[in-house]
């Protein structure tokens, strides 16, 4: 999906919500456990219920890899089920020496039909460039993450600047804003104005609203650019809004609430 197509979807649907499919088999409603593939069945119903309120889905691969082969199959089926109009993110946080990163890129962009993958920048340019060789796909580089551990490295000084600032400035040179985004955690709202000044044109994938407590209002006010430039992910707040048979209806309600709030900011 090109940047222009993504922006059109956001403007048309009046939402920049990404629904996070962090599907944990121990948390899905019990009545689904007798289905042939409970994880896929849960995702299918969540996607059907929320697709009008979001522009994409983020599959956190850990939840699928944890189940071995059936988990990987559920991920493949889910990725294939997501409508073509929706942005499909593999949240895999990959990145390794170049020839290994090339294999990760093939796995998520060729063998699986994802539009985007999250990548850790710690190993530097040669670990990220193999993803960026796919010009029609998106590489989403971790910038400033939402967790408390962001203080351990990302918010430490690296010379004159903070490490995350160096990551943003440096990684922004590796690809264009048509193919490279940054992850910026919603819990880091105090840094958002600074982040936008460093990378004025980029899209950000913003996790950390909902269960982690970040403010949609604050990040939207501080970081929206002329192309919107924001994709805001919520996982647990939507998919586990109810643990009962009404889970899909409740997920729809929460996704719709996010959409309505986003429509106000657009
Ligand atoms: O790359 C991510 O998506 C990510 C980066 C980050 O800094 N913080 C973060 O929470 N995430 C992911 O975003 C999702 C957040 O889930 P909820 O807190 O349930 O909405 C999880 O899949 C996390 O792995």
From TrEMBL:
InterPro entries: Aldolase_TIM, OMPdecase_type-2, OMPdeCOase_dom, RibuloseP-bd_barrel. Keywords: Decarboxylase, Lyase, Pyrimidine biosynthesis. One of its GO terms (molecular function) is orotidine-5'-phosphate decarboxylase activity. It comes from the Bacteria. It is an enzyme of class 4 (lyase). It catalyses: orotidine 5'-phosphate + H(+) = UMP + CO2. Residues 16-251 form the Orotidine 5'-phosphate decarboxylase domain. Its EC number is 4.1.1.23. Belongs to the OMP decarboxylase family. Type 2 subfamily. This is Orotidine-5'-phosphate decarboxylase.
